[in-house]
């Protein structure tokens, strides 16, 4: 998942850098700075949604709570055997 985050952030940063560098050279682009801002907002919303799906949904709907550790063992924690 870190590659997805890194990929989205890298694409947004490269697009922003290319937009401003081409603007300094006087190249006319069909994209305005308002469009670039919308792209940033969209990218951040996508990253936020990914975080919600990865963190909150497994927390509420995960089935790992029934698992646990065998507390009768007196040494290193051992998983319960079902």
In short:
This protein is mainly alpha-helical and 82 residues long.
Folded structure, characterized:
This protein is mainly α and 82 residues long. It has a domain at 2-55. It is built from 2 helices and 2 strands; from the N terminus they run ααββ. A two-stranded antiparallel ribbon has the order 1-2. Helix 1 (2-24) packs antiparallel against helix 2. The protein is rod-shaped and about 75 Å long. The two termini are 31 Å apart. The model has no long low-confidence stretch (mean pLDDT 82).
Summarize the topology:
Blueprint: H1 2-24, H2 33-61, E1 69-70, E2 78-79
Antiparallel strand pairs: 1-2
Helix pairs in contact: 1-2
How many distinct beta strands?
2
Order of helices and strands: HHEE
Quote the average pLDDT: 82
Computed Rg: 23 Å
Q: Overall 3D geometry?
A: rod-shaped
Features of the shown structure:
rod-shaped, 63% helix, mainly alpha, 2 helices, two-stranded antiparallel ribbon, 82 residues
């Amino acid at each position: 998942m870190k590659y997805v985050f890194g990929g989205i952030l890298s694409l947004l940063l490269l697009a922003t850098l290319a937009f401003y560098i081409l603007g300094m050279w006087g190249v006319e682009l069909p994209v305005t700075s308002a469009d670039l801002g919308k792209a940033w907002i969209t990218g951040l919303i996508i990253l936020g949604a990914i975080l919600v799906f990865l963190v909150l949904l497994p927390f509420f709907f995960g089935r790992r709570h029934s698992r646990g550790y065998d507390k009768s063992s007196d040494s290193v924690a051992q998983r319960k055997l079902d």
